[in-house]
Structure formats: C-alpha cells, structure tokens
Amino acid sequence: MSLSHLDSDGRARMVDVGDKKVTARTATASGRVVTRPDVIELVRGDNLPKADVLATARIAGIMGAKKTSELIPLCHPIPLTSVKVDFSFESDAILITATAKTTGQTGVEMEALTAVSIAALTLHDMIKAVDPSAVTTDIRLDEKTGGKHGHWRGGARKDRASDHATPAPTEPAKSVTNAVRPNTAIVLVVSTGTANGTRDDTTGPVILQWLEARGYTTTLTVTPDATVHTSLATALAAHPAVIISTGGTGMSPTDQTPEATAAVLDRELPGVAEAIRARGIASTPTAALSRGLAGTADGTVIVNLPGSPGGVKDGLAVLDELLAHLVAQVAGGGSHD
Length: 337
Prior knowledge:
25% strand; six-stranded antiparallel sheet
C-alpha cells in the first residue's frame, strides 16, 4: 500500500489534486470532552465563570476549520462553503460534532476533525478552572461524501465496502436466562427535584407496589437527570428481569432518559412505547410529547414511563397486559411472535 503524501523516495509531499474532478464534498467528525456531572450542568446552564461556553467553543471550532491548512502541513487550502459545530450531553461528557462542506478537488475530512479538536480544546480551557482533569477523547471521522470513493461512513465506504471492510463475525446468541435474576425489578425515578429533596416522589412507589403485587422483588433508585446514564448502567449491572423508569422523557433540556436508554438497548420494542403513548393521548394530548422507549438490554426488559402520576397509570395499564408474556419470551419461555 502506498501513502499519497510520500513520494517514491519516501519524502513528504503535497498531493497534486489538479486532475481531480470538482465535486461537492462533506465530512462529519466527532469527539468527547469527559468531565464531571456537576460540570455538565454548569455548562448546560451557562453558569461557569467564563460565560457563553458553548458559543465560544462553536466559534473556535469554525475558525479552526478555516485555518486547517495553516495548522497541518501538506493540507490544501480549500474554500469552505459551510462549517457547522454542534454539542450534546451525556451524564459525564460533552459530545462535539462538526460537519464541513466544500465544492472542490479535495476532501474536507481534516477541516471537520480540526473543528472538533479546536472546539474541544476551547471547552477544556473554559472548564479547567472547575475540572482541570477533564479529558478529550474519541476524536474520529464519522462520515464523508464526494470524490471518487463516494459515500463513506464509520470505517467502510458504502459503494466500495468490499475493498477495505472485513465482515464482522457472527456472534452466538447470548444466553440470558443465567445472567438475569428472575422475578426481580428495579424502579428508576429520574428527577433532579426528588433527588435533591425539593420534590415529593408520587410515581416511584406506585410502580413499586404494582410490581410487588405481581411477585417481583423490587428496589427503588432515585437519580438526578444529569446522572441517569450512570444510574441506568448501575441498575443493569444488577441483572434484574425488569427496569421501569419514570421521568425524564419529555423535551426539557435536562430530559435524558430516552438517550440513556437508547445507549444500552440491544433490541427495541417500539410497539410497547407507542401503546403507552396512545393510552395517554386518549386523555391527555400532551402525552404525545413523551419520548419514552421500551426494549431489552442483555435480557433485562426496560420500559420508560413519564414522570406524571397519570402517565404512570396509563403505562402500567398497558404493561398489565404485556409484561408477564414479554418477560417469559425474553427468558426463552414464550413461543409467540
């Protein structure tokens, strides 16, 4: 395999792109700044000593993309038509995504990667006063389009995947009956107010009582919205048969329960989630705004319910007709589709 930036004598060179076709090109890259949950909340609320943290990091990322050819040797200066930098949140990380676009004879991968890198460095500079141990990690190219290789995503070109990609071996089906503890359930109450003691929990005990009436040994855990990812992972590590969460399913900036759940699910149950929403919409139109998910993770059934008493009542009414059969199927004891 020859490297394009080396000549026949192994010396570094700038690639001649003069004969390449002019095409529309895009590239998307991403990275993470890992920090403490309390720092995440400070960034969300723009309450750090240095204000406008995300806005400053976004501008820095865009400026970095525009100066890529000055920062990285042998990169071509190219006319960027667009650079977009976005941020999202996990319980312990700020996710950075950058997309660069151009119409030209060479790609914009390095511009997208530079935008992520500079935005991450800027975030670190802004939060280091409260968390000097923050770590930047997982900077990678996610996707690119244009040029002779077409559309490439996540390490394999869509139109030339056979050239470079090795098919992943098929894994044997997991045996979940030994890992999961039968007839055990965890109720996860996702509420910053309840966790802080400023709000009464009116939903967790209802779910707890409902599960116990059906023969489950139960545990109730209360978590702030900011740590729902960690709390859900901890609950899964206990290998219960069922996890039912309540709260954090709406559109508030702090609502992260569906995102935390999506990150651990290996099989979704969209019909269950839609049935819960439909039951709620019949009496409360705003139930349509719930983003709750349902599915399984390593043999554990996970269902997100809203944080309102009415939403929990509707959700349990749906589960009353499904949960026993669902748990039996996941454990290998059901035979119906």
